Amino acid sequence: MGNETFLPKISGKNLAKITDDWDFLFAILDLYYDEMEKNGEKSVFSRVNDHQAILLIFNDLYGQVTNGGFIQLIYNGYGFSVFESEFINLLEPIGIAKIQNILERAKIFYEKYREKFENVNRENWDDFAALYEECPEFEKLDEEFYEVMDAEVSILKNFVEKNLSDFVTIVA
Prior knowledge:
The chain is mainly α. It has helices spanning 12-17, 21-39, 41-45, 50-75, 79-83, 87-94, 97-119, 125-134, 137-162, and strands spanning 9-11, 169-171. It has 9 helices and 2 strands; from the N terminus they run βαααααααααβ. It starts with 8 loop residues before the first strand and ends with a strand.
């Protein structure tokens, strides 16, 4: 099966009925995660285009930041895909400018504190909790993220909808 782009099949009729932004995005994301569960993450990540990568990384970003802020995102190992890839630069053309701006500022602190995160004792919950005090700059960025995230998710949903053929194969 070569290395062609992963484009799972989805019913266009069913997708058209979904009005909630996240329900729409997860109708697509779930197909990716089902494939990862069956055949491993690499089976999908080795075959995604830039637009698919944005959707997957954005979902991780949103899930981590809304759960424990940027500190949790970095602690849980997502700093690489968010801050060390083309992800931030790919957001602007889509129109996700506010989160892009927040991420550009968060990246400065990510780089400033990278060693601290790499060396934290992962067996000790208190060491994780201490990161919130030791890296206070992230708190303001978390708050900014919460203020703009719903509007930015709508922008992402509209982008996916306009570029569906980059994400899925539509079937009857």
